[in-house]
Each structure stands twice: as structure tokens, then as C-alpha cells.
Write a structure and sequence with these properties.
The chain has a two-stranded parallel sheet. It has helices at about 30-55, 55-65, 65-90, 95-115, 120-150, 155-160, 165-180, 185-210, 215, 225-235, 240, 245-250, 255-265, 265-285, 290-315, 320-340, 350-380, 385-410, 415-430, 430-440, 445-450, 455-465, 470-485, 485-495, 495-505, 510-525, 525-535, 540-565, 570-610, 620-640; strands at about 20, 210. The protein has about 650 residues and is mostly helical. Helix 6 packs across helix 17 and helix 7 (about 165-180) packs antiparallel against helix 15 (about 290-315).
């Protein structure tokens, strides 16, 4: 396959539905259009992939998923996506534009019709796997097209726009879900909205996307001034020779290592894109809409940083300094973020500020890395672009699989909080005072009372905990209530002021008459009977009576609180007894577990730094400019030699 692989005419509207190869390198307007279609198609695909995380709580409720099953959905999807990314390198003969265009069509149809129709968790998993497979293949084809249509001196800007795919996809997901989740809590609605939007984009991609013929794309294009030379060379290019042993050529440290480095670097990104609502809800009490809105503070600045960093990198003609600076900014932001893990009262805008810092650093590092990676692959063999990107895509999805599995192991407290926390929250709201009583008394004491209501030792412990009285004071009060019930009722009928006067002067006739009247009125009895009842109170030992008078009302209130616990519905009480201790322990363990996970993400970002040094490209803008000038001179001399 040499010059015969270059088509003689451009595709028409009809033939371009499959045969999309261009005979010439397109002018800037057409090239910009193709780049825009690829970027928008990427956004649609990531929107379809990320909507699962946005409605994660609703999916868990609808399918009665355990948190572990929910995470395994992402793990299995990422694993299949990794395989699809590698296979995409073998499918390049079908056409990169075809993979993208029809990949978006397949995903959109699945999102619009198949996903909302599933009624079991197994069916949902199966459809999610299909979406992940297609997304994994397109993940390789889209950056390959971006590389094809962007010369090296504009590569970072183009890659900056391409990396908007996952970021704008996440931003669109959170923006739409934030505004619609409260009004439309059914998760199917959000998939249908996503499917409709994506189908419109799919139609545009099928009709309007093209790609370069192999002899054109299998060369290194440094600037647009290389266009004439690229086309002249293409007429005699042996594409078969260039495409031989591509995979073997990609097995180099600067390719495999750098792909691993950026995949590790993005561990934090893939954690929050999938589990930000879960993290914010279980640790800080944020609602799903609040958590999704908080995500906008990450995606928005990240999108801006991706583009601006790419433009600046192209202007200075260097990538490596941007990667290092961006990574360091992100690491500092993540370090600050970790500090809030065990502070549940941290405010919304505090998190927003930290997210902005991390997002800016990540954007600077990622867009310039994508440009540098494609240039590193080109330095090895420009015809092996898809193979190199397939290596990256496979490693990325493989690392995401391990990241999600690691999250499941490290943050095991999230399972009970997600699985049982919402129901326990409803019980808490319904029986707040009763649960406060249970918490004060203790589950062991309460269990003893439920087993044997006559257990006096357990009863004393419970009343002591609730009233604040000592066990001895409670026992004295209970003993007096049992031995002198009528006498104590009589004393309780006397107003405190009257009791105080009698205690000060037992012969106070006015206070005595007042006491008789109060007892008579309270029980509706004649004066003589009231006097008899008052006389009977004198048999109570004074020291014990003093104790009962002091703590008696508190013990009575405590007894009422204890009795109210019996009003909890049996099914709620059973659920509380079964899962309450587990959730309480998980709530205690969760901050430390998440903190450990965030430290792992931070160390993963640190691990990215050494791989920057093995990638292609200059550190110095001055040397990069000199190399670009030297290249232009070589192009002009070669063109002069080719001109008759």
C-alpha cells in the first residue's frame, strides 16, 4: 500500500457515511470543523459514561444495590473498556472516523433506549459493559484524530480541547443533574435526556466527520507550513513498511511508563467523578444535588486550565515544565483537601476553593501530557499513533480498574453507610428523642431490659444514665416509690414554695394550711383526709426523702423517656438493632479510611513526576524555538529539492 491508498476525490455526503478518507490535508476551516466534531463527540461519550455516578444514589435505591455491587459495576466496565482500548488499535483499518461516529451512535442508542428499560441489576450491568466497551474503543480513536488534524506546534491547544471531553462531560452531567434531580428523582429520566442530546451529536458525527488517508497521517507534521511537503511525500510513502511491528515499537519506557504515570495521576479524578456524591453525603451530609453542584467547581476551572495551558504550551513550544508545575499545584491542593477529611463541619465553599486549585493543576498537567505523549509516539513511529494510544488507553482503563478495586478494599466503611445509612436516617428523623435515649442508655443495657423488664440492675443503670443521678440515688428513689407510693404522691401535690417554707419552719401555720389546701385540691378529697395523708408522710425517713425530692422528678422524666422507646415500630427497631451498630462503627471509621485513600491518590500523583523526564520534547523555550526554526529550514530545502 503506497500512493494507491490515497483516494483521488473527497468523500461526498453519501459516500462519506463510510469512506471518510481525505485525499489532501484540509484547510484550516475544515480542519477546525473536524476537530470540533471529535471534541463534541468525546463530550457526549463521557456524559453517557458519567451519568451513572450522578444518579448513583437513585440506582442503589432502585435496584437495591449494595455499595460493593455498585463499585463492581464501575470495575467491570473499566476492565472491559481496557480490553476494548487495546483492540481499537487493531480496528484502525476500519477507519478512525468510523469508530468515533458509529461508536457515538451505538452508545447513544443504548443510553436512550436500553438502559432506561432495564429492571434488574444484572441487566443494568450488562448494558453498562456494552457502553464501556464502545467508550474504550473511541477513547483511542478520538485523540488519534486530534493528533492527525493538529501539527505539533498546535498540538497542545488541540489536545487541550480534546481533554475537555471527560471534563465537560462531567460538567454537563453535574450541571443537568443538579437542576433536575430534585424534580426528577427517577434515574431513567436522566439517561433519556443524555440519550437525546447524544443522538443529536451522533448524527452530526456520522454526516460530518472525516479523516486523513494513511500516507498523510503516517508522517510527522510540525507546523501547517509542512502541508505541501507532507502531501508530496505521501505519494511515494510505503505505508505497509511504516505500520509493520507497531506494537513492538511501542514497548518503550517513555511510552509505556509515561502512560502508566498519567493513569496513576488521574486516580483522584476517577475517584471523584464516580464517587463524589457518595463521599460528600456519607462524610459531610451533602445532598446529591449539592455534591453535584460542588463538582462544578472542579470541572469548570479544569476545563479552562486545559485549554489555556495548551495555548501557552504551544506558544512557548515546551510541554515538560507545564507538566511538572501542573502536577505540583495539584499535589498541593490535594494535600490541603486531605486535611478536611476528618472535619465534618467543613463548608461548601471551602471545598469549592480547594477543588479549584486541584482542577487547575490537573488541567495544566494533563493537556500538555497528551500533546507530549503523541509527540513521543511520533518520535518512535508516526504511523504507530493508534497503537501508542491503544497502549495508553489499555493502561489507563487497567489502572482505573485497579483504582476502583482498591477503593472498595480501603474504604470499606462506605458500604454500610450507603447501604443502610439512608434508612437509618429516616428512622433517626422519626424517632429522634427515642434514639437519643437509646444512645444515652446504651444498647447492652437496653437489650437486658428488653430481655427481662424486671432486671432492677439494668433499670437502675438506665435511669441513672438518663437522669444524671447516681445509682444509689436512683435506688433510694425507686425504693421509696415502692414503699411509700401514696405518701410521695401527697408530697408531690405540694407546691415547691410551700415545701420550702415547711422545711424551714415545720410549725409555720400558714404554710401548713396551704399544704392541706393543695393536697385537698389535687386529689379532690376533704380537708380531714388531706390532713391524714400529710400526717402519713412523716413516716418517710428524712434523709431518704431529701434524696427523692432532689432527683425524683428527674428519675420520673427518665422513666417516661425509657418507656417511650417501646413506641418504636417493630420493623424499625429490628432494622436499627441489626444495622445500627455497624453503621455507627462505619461512620467512625469512614474519615480515616477516606484519608488513607486520598493519600494513596496523592502518592500516585507524585509517582507521575519521574516519567515526565523520559518523554520527548525540550525543557527550554529558547531551544524549542531554535529546533522549530531549524525544522522550517529543512522543510523549505526539501520542498525546493522536490520542485522541478
Amino acid at each position: 500500500m503506497s500512493s494507491s491508498s490515497i483516494p483521488t476525490t473527497s468523500p461526498t455526503l453519501l459516500t462519506g457515511l463510510w469512506q471518510r478518507k481525505l485525499p489532501h490535508y484540509p484547510d484550516t476551516p475544515a480542519r477546525s470543523w473536524y476537530l470540533a466534531v471529535v471534541v463534541i463527540a468525546s463530550i457526549a461519550l463521557y456524559y453517557q459514561l458519567f451519568v451513572t455516578g450522578a444518579v448513583g444514589n437513585e440506582l442503589i435505591d432502585y435496584f437495591d444495590l449494595s455499595f460493593a455491587y455498585f463499585v463492581w459495576i464501575f470495575i467491570i466496565g473499566a476492565a472491559f473498556g481496557a480490553v476494548a482500548s487495546v483492540l481499537a488499535g487493531l480496528l484502525d483499518r476500519w477507519g478512525r472516523a468510523n469508530i468515533v461516529a458509529y461508536g457515538v451512535v451505538i452508545c447513544s442508542l443504548l443510553t436512550l433506549f436500553a438502559v432506561p428499560a432495564v429492571t434488574t441489576k444484572e441487566a443494568y450491568l450488562a448494558v453498562y459493559i456494552l457502553v464501556s466497551i464502545v467508550e474504550g474503543a473511541v477513547l483511542v480513536a478520538t485523540p488519534a484524530l486530534i493528533r492527525d488534524f493538529s501539527p505539533q506546534l498546535g498540538r497542545a491547544s488541540a489536545m487541550g480541547f480534546w481533554t475537555l471531553g471527560p471534563v465537560i462531560g462531567a460538567l454537563v452531567t453535574t450541571a443537568i443533574s443538579t437542576r433536575t434531580l430534585d424534580a426528577h428523582p427517577d434515574w431513567q429520566f436522566h439517561y433519556r435526556v443524555c440519550g437525546v442530546i447524544s443522538m443529536v451529536i451522533a448524527v452530526v458525527a456520522v454526516i460530518g466527520l472525516r479523516e486523513l488517508s494513511p500516507p498523510l497521517r503516517d508522517q510527522i507534521m510540525v507546523s501547517l507550513r509542512d502541508k505541501a511537503l507532507i502531501e508530496a511525500r505521501a505519494r511515494g510513502l510505503d505505508v505497509n513498511a511504516l505500520e509493520r511491528d507497531q506494537w513492538k515499537q511501542m514497548m518503550r519506557l517513555n511510552i509505556v511508563g509515561s502512560a502508566l504515570g498519567i493513569s496513576l495521576f488521574l486516580a483522584y479524578f476517577y475517584t471523584i467523578v464516580s464517587f463524589l456524591p457518595v463521599y460528600m453525603a456519607t462524610n459531610f451530609g451533602f445532598s446529591p444535588s449539592q455534591a453535584n453542584a460542588l463538582g462544578n467547581w472542579y470541572w469548570g476551572p479544569n476545563a479552562i486550565a486545559l485549554v489555556l495551558a495548551g495555548i501557552a504550551s504551544d506558544y512557548l513550544k515546551v510541554r515538560k515544565p507545564f507538566m511538572i508545575v501542573g502536577a505540583l499545584i495539584s499535589i498541593v491542593g490535594l494535600f490541603v483537601f486531605i486535611g478536611f477529611t476528618d472535619k465534618p463541619d467543613t463548608g461548601y465553599y471551602t471545598f469549592a476553593g480547594v477543588f479549584v486549585v486541584i482542577a487547575i493543576g490537573t488541567g495544566i498537567a494533563y493537556s500538555t501530557w497528551m500533546a507530549s505523549f503523541t509527540e513521543t509516539v511520533e518520535a518512535r513511529n508516526p504511523a504507530a499513533t493508534v497503537a501508542g494510544l491503544a497502549v495508553w488507553g489499555g493502561i489507563l482503563r487497567g489502572v482505573v480498574t485497579l483504582v476502583l478495586f482498591g477503593l472498595l478494599i480501603v474504604v470499606n466503611a462506605a458500604g454500610p453507610l450507603v447501604n443502610h445509612g439512608p434508612r437509618l436516617g429516616e428512622i433517626q428523623e422519626k424517632y429522634g428523642s427515642e434514639l437519643a435515649t437509646i444512645q444515652t442508655v446504651g444498647t447492652e443495657t437496653l437489650a437486658a431490659l428488653q430481655k427481662n423488664p424486671g432486671d432492677q440492675a439494668a433499670q437502675v443503670r438506665a435511669l441513672s444514665a438518663l437522669s444524671g443521678a447516681t445509682p444509689e440515688q436512683v435506688q433510694t428513689t425507686l425504693a421509696l416509690n415502692a414503699k411509700y407510693p401514696q405518701e410521695l404522691q401527697t408530697l408531690q401535690a405540694i407546691q415547691p414554695e410551700t415545701q420550702a417554707k415547711l422545711a424551714e419552719n415545720p410549725t409555720d401555720a400558714t404554710a401548713g394550711l396551704a399544704a392541706v389546701g393543695q393536697v385537698s385540691q389535687k386529689f379532690g378529697i376533704p380537708v380531714d383526709q388531706a390532713i391524714a395523708r400529710l400526717t402519713a408522710t412523716q413516716q418517710i425517713p428524712r434523709d431518704q426523702l431529701t434524696v427523692a425530692a432532689t432527683v425524683g422528678p428527674k428519675v420520673a422524666t427518665a422513666a417516661s423517656q425509657l418507656a417511650a422507646v417501646g413506641g418504636i415500630a417493630p420493623d424499625d427497631a429490628a432494622y436499627l438493632a441489626e444495622y445500627g451498630p455497624e453503621v455507627a462503627q462505619a461512620k467512625e471509621d469512614s474519615p480515616a479510611q477516606w484519608e488513607l485513600w486520598w493519600w494513596i491518590c496523592l502518592l500516585a500523583q507524585v509517582a507521575f513526576l519521574p516519567f515526565v523526564f523520559v518523554m520527548a520534547g525540550h525543557w527550554s523555550p529558547r531551544k524549542a524555538a531554535a529546533a522549530a526554526k531549524e525544522h522550517d529550514e529543512l522543510v523549505q530545502s526539501e520542498l525546493a529539492a522536490l520542485t522541478p
